[in-house]
């Protein structure tokens, strides 16, 4: 085991989203390299349960807010008793708790990964929080730019998120099936994802291609409104809500096109997953997405809230199976080159070692 460095990961998420998936992939790859690690997370969270396979130390730490006293006391005790070299904070709430719970503890450095692309408000609380970590990681150039515009100009590192290319891989025989399936996967959050454009795109495409199905995998508080959008446009037999899908890699690999309509996106884990599966993508030109999608090479970028433009690009791919296949192959190659767990873990390990000095 590599005993040169000891990492304590802290994630406060209670659901399974892109950020939690990234934590698991990072921990898995670091373990392969012999890095000593521990995980603090809510005991009922999917991350806590999935991390059992890694056979690393875990301890339960629930957090209801940035000022949760019980979480702060628990984190401080855990850090003082374990003496990790680095506490890696993976959520905004984890940063909010750590910035006051861990102050004054000697020989412990913190790293925070910011995964969202909206600008930070320049107020006292954010200055207090973001001035605390020894280093801040941005998962895309836009996130990095927002951090620097906010005033965090030192020790900001850009490290892309990754995708498990062993789990997310192409499905053979798909291009000969004849039936086209266009899909989207993610939390049903109307503030983040633009499901209205997804539904409007399905409506436009269905006029000329009624046989194409549109499918959405995920759960969230926007379910009722999305159902109403679908019903109001008479698309109940065209747009299908799949709910929570256990085999998300199988679902994504089975798609012919990933349609990712979003208002904003730090990077876009599900886009990486689709590309790894050889699925071409039509996505909004927002956040870090343009750093993944090379327009015309592994997918198409469209302006957000533009169902007309979006549907035209979806139709190009529907009508050209050769283009779908070529773009899919290009996408998988690009993911393996830039967005693999090996690449991400190497960059984090280099950062940890620099921060520790």
Structure description:
There is one protein chain. The protein is α/β, with parallel strands linked by helices and 357 residues long. The chain folds into two domains: 2-162 and 340-356, Glycogen Phosphorylase B (Rossmann fold, 3-Layer(aba) Sandwich), CATH 3.40.50.2000; 174-338, Glycogen Phosphorylase B (Rossmann fold). Helices cover 41% and strands 18% of the residues. It has 13 helices and 13 strands. The strands form two sheets. A seven-stranded parallel beta sheet has the order 3-2-1-4-5-6-7, with helices on both faces. Strand 5, helix 5 (124-130) and strand 6 form a beta-alpha-beta unit.
Give a summary of the structure in a few sentences.
The chain has 357 residues and is α/β, with parallel strands linked by helices. The protein is built from 13 helices and 13 strands.
Q: Let me know the average pLDDT.
A: 93
Tell me what portion of residues adopts beta-strand conformation.
15-25%
**C-alpha-based Rg, rounded:** 21 Å
Spell the H/E element sequence.
EHEHEHEHEHEHEEHEHEHEHEEHHH
The DSSP helix count reads 13
- Structural class, from helix and strand content? alpha/beta
Q: Give me the count of strands.
A: 13
Give the class-level CATH name of the largest domain. Alpha Beta
What is the CA–CA distance across the termini? 20 Å
Estimate percent helicity. Answer: 40-55%
Strand order of the largest sheet: 3-2-1-4-5-6-7
Low-confidence stretches: none
Give the full name of the CATH homologous superfamily of the largest domain. Glycogen Phosphorylase B
**Assembly status:** single chain
């Amino acid at each position: 085991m590599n005993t040169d460095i000891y990492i304590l990961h802290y994630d406060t998420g209670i659901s399974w989203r892109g950020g939690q998936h990234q934590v698991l992939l990072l921990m898995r790859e670091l373990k392969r390299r012999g890095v000593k690690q521990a995980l603090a997370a809510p005991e009922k969270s999917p991350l806590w349960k999935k991390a059992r396979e890694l056979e690393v130390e875990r301890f339960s730490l629930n957090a209801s807010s940035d000022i949760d006293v019980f979480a702060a006391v628990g984190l401080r005790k855990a850090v003082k008793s374990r003496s990790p070299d680095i506490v890696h904070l993976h959520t905004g709430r984890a940063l909010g708790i750590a910035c006051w719970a861990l102050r004054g503890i000697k020989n412990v450095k913190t790293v925070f990964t910011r995964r969202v692309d909206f600008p930070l408000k320049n107020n006292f609380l954010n200055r207090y929080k973001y001035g605390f970590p020894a280093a801040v990681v941005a998962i895309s150039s836009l996130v990095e730019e927002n951090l620097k515009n906010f005033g965090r100009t030192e020790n900001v590192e850009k490290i892309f998120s990754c995708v498990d290319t062993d789990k997310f891989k192409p499905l053979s025989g798909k291009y000969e099936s004849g039936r086209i399936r266009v899909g989207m996967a993610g939390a049903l959050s109307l503030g983040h994802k633009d499901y209205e454009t997804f539904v409007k795109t399905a409506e436009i495409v269905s006029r000329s291609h009624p046989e194409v199905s549109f499918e959405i995998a995920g759960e969230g508080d926007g379910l009722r409104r999305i159902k109403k959008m679908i019903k109001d446009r008479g698309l109940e037999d065209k747009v299908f809500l799949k709910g929570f899908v256990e085999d998300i890699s199988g679902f994504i690999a089975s798609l012919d096109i990933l349609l990712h309509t979003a208002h904003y996106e730090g990077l876009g884990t599900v886009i990486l997953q689709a590309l790894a599966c050889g699925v071409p993508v039509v996505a909004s030109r927002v956040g870090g997405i343009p750093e993944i999608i090379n327009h015309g090479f592994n997918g198409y970028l469209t302006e957000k809230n533009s169902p007309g433009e979006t549907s035209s690009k979806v139709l190009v791919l529907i009508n050209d199976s050769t283009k779908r296949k070529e773009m899919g192959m290009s996408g998988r190659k690009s993911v393996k080159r830039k967005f693999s767990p090996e690449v991400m873990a190497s960059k984090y390990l280099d950062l940890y070692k620099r921060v520790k000095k």
